[in-house]
Design goal:
This protein is α+β, with helices and mostly antiparallel strands. It contains 13 helices and 15 strands.
Length: 465
Amino acid sequence: MAEHDDDLVVDLSGPQWQALLTVAPPGHEPPKTVDFDVPPTGGGQELRRISTQVVFTTARNERSGWAAWHVKIYTCAGLGDAETLRQYLNAQASALQRANTYLPGAVRRSPVEPPWAVVPVQVVRGDGRLEELSGAVTTRLGVPSDQIVAQLERRLPGWFGAVRPDLVLLAVSPQIEALPWEPLRHWPGTEHLADFAQLAAGIDHLHDLRWAHCDIKPENVCWCAHQDGSGYVLIDTDAATQADPPPRALRGTALYEYTGLRTLRLEDPEGLRHLTPGLLYAQDRFGFLTVVLSALAGRHWVDHTLLGPDPDDPARRVADSADAVRHALRTHWPDPRWAPLVDVLAHPFGPDGRIALEAPGPWAQGWLAEVRDAEHRCAAGSATDDAWPDERLAHTFARDIERIRDHALRGPATRPERVHLAYRAIGEAAQQIALRRAALWMSMSGAGIVLAALVLAAAAFVIGE
């Protein structure tokens, strides 16, 4: 039960778990208009356009488990719209939760606890009636049933103006901090690849369920640490849709639009009315490519080079051609030892890759495995390279500094905690340096010099943050 009478409380419960969320009043930002094109429940081709007013707020969990939550509050124009949107949001949330069910290498405790590939969403009725999602989760506003309408009618007008509770829907989800993407990575940030494993599995499983997220981009990917490890997760599922049958309209972000969709839209204003499941799966996979490259090469490089105009053909983007992507990556990472990684990263952007991106079967996990295998081949080639030791040391030293910096920046933390994270990473880097260099030339004094340099560089970074 809430501490204050003006609090709004949401119950989430399932087998052997419960969350009790106290919702904070929304801020003073004006409502945002969000339109949904919802397929009719009885079949047919025509979509139903539902326009909603949305405000955003947060909630805290009064029970054990995930503490901070994100809340979207939708207000509909009529009862028919509210009921149709409720059914649509529930179908969307159910598919996204099923995508989390069979993630590899993780122990699942409850749907509202990580690991996730997609952050789960729960739908709550504003009129206080019980809501079930796939028989596993029930939600309701946490007040006695005989007080629900009276309390909501007292609270909601102060939040939105005059509004009926039965026109309101709440979508609640665990809140995850935004990820600070590096703008440029002059050496591939391959240390991030392992954290994409569960996200790739979730995308493949979502497509098996004939659903697509449709808005995979750096802003919608966060990093989450949990008992079983860590990994990247998707947020903001408003654009998610059934892929089969495909919708007749699509929401997303133009900058991260898949080449095939972009061509369809530019050649024919009505082109997106001819969507196919393959195009929707390709949209997700193209977004996954851009996110992986944002981690490897830098967010600024992706937005301004990969998704920018091709210097040889300004009418198209670099991302519209595998050859253009390969050339851009080779320019960005000129060391020839990265050639195997560059080739695997560039391949999906070309004509053959486009076919693969639109294929009905799973793709993301297989492609990520190819990328990791290529990175291992690069590392093996580097270990046997006859390059001058000083050149190899400079290359490795820069990668170690970047790895330490990334480790210290991960997740929310105080400055002393970041110092601790940095020094722990320094110890690991020092061991790796000693092992790598012992076979070539490094003596104990050389190791001491490099370790001292790492300590000074990391300390300067943490203190100056």
